[in-house]
């Protein structure tokens, strides 16, 4: 009975949604074909324009790709009343499909609305308590690109809000095995995360969050949101994501492109300050002093130290006449420039103009009528140039820092009252290098050079900077990041309990002050999406020792997770670790073997002997290569389905002090998504042995 079949088909809601999906995909293909067919010869007036346009078109084509495993829409909102079309990317009506990008049909009517559009916001925020004019929220489930399920929430149903729990589709998304790089979370951003994602561009936001609460995910989605809401402004000023190291950046690098954003720069702090080649290291004591904010004042003084008051007048000869500007008058100019806190380089450019102006005044007084060109000519006069060179010499930032770290007398003068003698000794080079090129600069030295460079010439500011794993930055590093967003805003993400540098952040207020964003709002995320409940409870035993006062994360994961702590004899440890890896490989998803850096070579040999192939952090895991051998110092920010943790005592001992060691251990213990096996031959740190009471 075909008639009846048609009726059933039309009435089957899943089938209707599939029809909309098919139509949306066809519309996306048509949009892409339109862009591909663009003939730029008609519009591009010249070659340069053509190049720029071509690149933009290529990017647009890439952004319009229909990715088989990223569903075109993941949600639907049915409003009670039609919202204004200005909020809905031009769509009218009451029903909207929410997806990663905007898709419209041949008539320009939107079939899928961008998740960042105002009309999409209730998808993330609406609740029964505050339905935001939404009647129904529908979430879609996909299997291998096929729309196979949906889940409805009736927001008008006045059931008590307290019972609102994450639905089955959110659970499934969170529990999905991890393989490959980090994924986007657009389909399941949670209300407290969405508040951070959509916070206004004007303010800086600082997020404290326990491991796995989604800080990195939130930061990346925030950039995508800001690029949508302020596209032109940010295209002009630029956006940047700062992460702790290369392997971390490689792990997160595909999230923004998956959201259609291809133009966000990513860098480590070291990349930002790469004025010199870093080939040296500091003692922890020296690094700590070099990273201290007092160094900013030492450098400010050092840059200014070359400025000397004139002893002689400046005499400018023009034609038959000589114009004389007395020393006291030039001194006044110098004092005035010093008092106005302008950049050394800018002041150096202003001084000859001031001297020239003084000459011009004298010319006018004697009846001449000089114009601006005369002033410029006087400013370039050899006598003026020579005077400026002596009074306000140019500063080469690297040479200045080289001198500061080599010349005890010079350092003592600049650091008087700031660094004590012992501190000065700590940062002085034992054997001063001969040149900037031959010096064995450390990472902290490069930050000092960056500070000096900014004192000479203002560092350009970007529109928005996301700083992840911020807790590890020194005050001087915060300043380096801060000067890259002086006229823009920032998103600062971190966890005080995971600070593993000797200078790790103690309070966010201090960090924000160093960044130059003291008025930023600090918020906290506490819902954990990564670590199973038992595992986070175990790791949290370390909190009183490493970050008293911080709250333990909750876990939204329903599965308790596999968790085991096993003691083995010292001679059997390597074998046991290999066996645990082999067992973990029996599960789906990625495996991380985390060990103290010093243990890595030995474990590598043990894996080789056992014939288990493994990757290094930053190498992409895949179905065929799922095991990564991770030195504990590179584990931060990463996650694996199953983690095998080797010898906690060695992880702790790998750090200069116990607290840092325990923090490193806390990071290692919180990388697991589905299961954690801890293997040890030495006793566990006492903090972990604590029995729940
Ligand atoms: N709303 C969400 N829906 C689904 N998954 C989420 C959500 N929020 C976070 N996740 C997932 O939880 C995991 C942890 O997120 P993320 O790495 O951003 O946490 P983090 O706070 O930066 O952790 P860490 O402090 O350990 O670096 C990731 O796999 C992320 O995709």
TrEMBL record:
It comes from the Bacteria. Residues 188-541 form the UvrD-like helicase ATP-binding domain. The keyword Kinase does not apply. Keywords: ATP-binding, Helicase, Hydrolase, Nucleotide-binding. ATP binds at residues 209-216. This is AAA family ATPase. It comes from Streptomyces luteosporeus.
């Amino acid at each position: 009975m075909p008639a009846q079949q048609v009726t059933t088909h039309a009435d089957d809601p899943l089938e209707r949604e599939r029809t909309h999906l098919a139509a949306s995909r066809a519309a996306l293909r048509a949009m892409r074909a339109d862009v591909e067919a663009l003939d730029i010869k008609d519009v591009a007036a010249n070659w340069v324009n053509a190049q720029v346009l071509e690149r933009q078109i290529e990017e647009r084509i890439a952004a319009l790709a229909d990715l088989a495993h990223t569903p075109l829409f993941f949600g639907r909102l049915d409003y009670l009343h039609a919202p204004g079309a200005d909020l809905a990317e031009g769509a009218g009506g009451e029903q909207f499909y929410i997806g990663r990008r905007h898709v419209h049909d041949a008539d320009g009517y939107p079939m899928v609305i961008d998740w960042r559009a105002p009309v999409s916001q209730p998808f993330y925020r609406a609740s029964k308590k505050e339905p935001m004019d939404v009647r129904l929220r529908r979430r879609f489930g996909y299997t291998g690109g096929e729309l196979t399920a949906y889940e409805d929430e009736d927001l008008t149903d006045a059931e008590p809000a307290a019972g609102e729990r994450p639905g089955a589709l959110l659970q499934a998304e969170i529990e999905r095995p991890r393989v490959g790089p980090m994924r986007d979370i657009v389909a399941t951003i949670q209300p407290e995360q969405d508040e951070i994602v959509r916070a206004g561009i004007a303010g800086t936001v600082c997020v404290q969050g326990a491991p796995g609460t989604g800080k990195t995910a939130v930061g990346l989605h925030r950039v995508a949101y800001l690029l949508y809401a302020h596209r032109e402004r940010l295209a002009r000023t630029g956006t940047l994501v700062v992460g702790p190291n290369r392997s971390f950046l490689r792990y997160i690098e595909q999230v923004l492109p998956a959201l259609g954003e291809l133009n966000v720069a990513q860098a480590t702090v070291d990349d930002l300050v790469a004025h010199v080649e870093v080939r040296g290291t500091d003692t922890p004591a020296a690094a700590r002093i070099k990273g201290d904010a007092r160094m900013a004042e030492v450098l400010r003084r050092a840059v200014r130290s070359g400025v000397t008051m004139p002893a002689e007048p400046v005499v400018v000869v023009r034609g038959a006449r000589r114009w004389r500007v007395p020393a006291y008058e030039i001194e006044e100019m110098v004092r005035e420039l010093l008092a106005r806190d302008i950049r050394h380089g800018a002041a150096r450019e202003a001084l000859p103009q001031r001297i020239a102006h003084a000459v011009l005044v004298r010319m006018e007084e004697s009846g001449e009528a000089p114009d601006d060109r005369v002033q410029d000519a006087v400013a370039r006069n050899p006598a003026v140039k020579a005077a400026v060179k002596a009074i306000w010499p140019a500063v080469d930032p690297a040479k200045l820092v080289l001198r500061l770290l080599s010349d005890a007398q010079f350092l003592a003068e600049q650091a008087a009252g700031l660094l004590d003698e012992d501190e000065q000794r700590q940062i002085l080079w034992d054997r001063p290098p001969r040149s900037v090129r031959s010096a064995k600069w450390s990472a902290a030295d490069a930050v000092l050079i960056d500070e000096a460079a900014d004192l000479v010439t203002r560092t350009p500011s970007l529109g928005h900077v996301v700083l992840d794993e911020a807790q590890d930055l020194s005050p001087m590093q915060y300043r380096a990041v801060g000067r890259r967003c002086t006229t823009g805003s920032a998103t600062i993400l971190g966890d005080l309990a995971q600070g593993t540098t000797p200078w790790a952040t103690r309070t966010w207020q201090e960090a924000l002050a160093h960044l130059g964003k003291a008025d930023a709002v600090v918020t906290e995320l506490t819902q954990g999406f990564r670590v199973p409940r038992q595992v986070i409870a175990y790791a949290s035993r370390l909190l009183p020792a490493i970050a008293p006062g911080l709250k333990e994360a909750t876990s939204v994961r329903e599965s308790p997770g596999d968790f085991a702590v096993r003691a083995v004899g010292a001679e059997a440890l390597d074998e046991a670790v290999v066996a645990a890896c082999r067992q973990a490989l029996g599960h789906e998803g990625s495996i991380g073997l985390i060990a103290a850096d010093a243990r890595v070579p030995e474990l590598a040999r043990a894996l080789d002997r056992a014939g288990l192939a493994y990757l290094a952090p930053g190498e992409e895991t895949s179905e065929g290569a799922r095991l990564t051998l991770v030195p504990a110092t590179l584990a931060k920010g990463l996650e694996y389905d199953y983690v095998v943790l080797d010898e906690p005592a060695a992880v702790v001992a790998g750090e200069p002090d116990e607290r840092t060691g325990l923090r490193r251990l806390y990071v290692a213990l919180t990388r697991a998504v589905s299961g954690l096996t801890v293997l040890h031959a030495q006793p566990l740190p006492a903090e972990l042995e604590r029995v729940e009471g």
